Amino acid sequence: MGTVKQVDEQLQRTLREARNLLAKIGRKQAELQMLRQSLPLSQEDHRAELTKLQGEATEMIGELRANMKAADLVARKIEGHLLWKEAVRSVWGEDGLQQCYAKMRELEAQRAEEYDRDDLRPR
After folding, report:
1. 121: which DSSP letter?
2. Which of 5, 34, 44, 78 has the most neighbouring CB atoms within 10 Å?
3. Which residues form a coiled coil (predicted)?
4. Which has the closest alpha carbon to 22: 49, 66, 60?
5. What pLDDT score does 40 carry?
């Protein structure tokens, strides 16, 4: 699952990406409005540009939805970790919680070593 800090960083990245996509969508909408207001283009040119912009906006909306789902997943991971932490603390106290964290760090280190060994194996 990663540490709470890593999960929080992932959530922050996802939220930044979502904000950037919203800004892009806003710029495309402004561009679309300007195209609609410009007179020199023929109706066919407007239609082609409008179709292109609508396709781009649809693609960005899909990316935004994916980012929102990812942000929701990260938020659920954080919430799950906080619930686990509260449960451990309520059953075993602060010392028990610190022992659990120490054991988690130990297991994470072991797993990292195993992954490193796996990466070094000939294929």
Report:
1. S
2. 78
3. 4-38
4. 60
5. 65
